[in-house]
Task: inverse folding
């Protein structure tokens, strides 16, 4: 889908146009259009696209990363020396690290609903964001490379099983948490943490393997599917 046919973007542009008129729209798009660098299939790029849509921000995206423009080119390395996507450009400001980008967007663009200011509520969102980027992400890495990417470097069955066991263990932690909240991962309301964790749950269900019954995770997956942003960027057929 091109960004021009994206219904959420059309809504955002219409909102800007109606609130400030054509002059405001032109000046907004020239000076404040966010650029997301990274291929649309990347789970970490998808977090940023989804967050932008939750915040009804205008954005454009460029395809960078394996299969597309080379992140090892000097031009890209000047933006992110790790040679990884996503990178966000907001005017002259450049930021990498997907969960940091989510926090930045909420802080910069009135996203308190996704990232509450109260210390305890914010810490709970941060806890699950960091858990997703560290423990959960690390656990699936080997199994995902083997079972989905079919990587020739990830064929050791012992390591595949160890990765699956660790992944399942963390998903059970998530299941227990969601059973307690009965709603979203940080509590009653949808937050930035659900963007990172929701994409991870999509990856869990989209990976060909046994999925032990986790009723609260299944309910959560259904709850997320009520959000247009999740259908566009999360549960969209890409693991
Ligand atoms: N911790 C980083 C990880 C970023 C990452 O692993 N990006 C992958 C795609 S999901 C990447 O850039 N791979 C190299 C490539 O595609 O060329 C973040 O969350 O932003």
Result:
């Amino acid at each position: 889908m091109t960004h021009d046919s994206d219904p959420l973007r059309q809504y955002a542009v219409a909102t800007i146009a109606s609130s400030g008129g054509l002059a405001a729209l032109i000046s907004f798009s020239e000076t404040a259009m966010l650029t997301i660098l990274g291929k649309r299939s990347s789970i970490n790029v998808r977090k940023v696209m989804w967050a932008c849509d939750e915040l009804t921000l205008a954005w454009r995206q460029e395809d960078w990363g394996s299969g597309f423009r080379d992140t090892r080119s000097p031009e890209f390395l000047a933006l992110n020396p790790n040679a990884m996507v996503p990178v966000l450009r907001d005017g002259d400001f450049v930021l990498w690290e997907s969960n940091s980008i989510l926090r930045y967007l909420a802080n910069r663009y009135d996203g308190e609903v996704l990232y509450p200011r109260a210390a305890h509520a914010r810490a709970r969102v941060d806890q699950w964001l960091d858990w997703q980027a560290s423990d959960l992400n690390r656990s699936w890495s080997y199994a995902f490379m083997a079972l989905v990417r079919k990587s020739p470097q990830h064929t050791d069955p012992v390591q595949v099983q160890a990765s699956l066991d660790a992944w399942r263990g963390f998903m059970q932690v998530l299941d227990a948490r969601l059973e307690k909240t009965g709603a979203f991962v940080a509590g009653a309301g949808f937050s930035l943490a659900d963007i990172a964790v929701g994409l991870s749950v999509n990856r869990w269900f989209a990976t060909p393997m046994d999925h032990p019954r986790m009723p609260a995770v299944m309910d959560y997956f259904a709850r997320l599917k009520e959000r247009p942003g999740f259908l566009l960027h999360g549960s969209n057929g890409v693991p």
About this structure: Residues 119-147 form the longest helix (29 residues). Residues 1-5, 11-31 have pLDDT under 50 and may be disordered. The pocket of glutathione is lined by residues 42-44, 65-66, 71, 84-86, 97-98, 133 (CB under 6 Å).
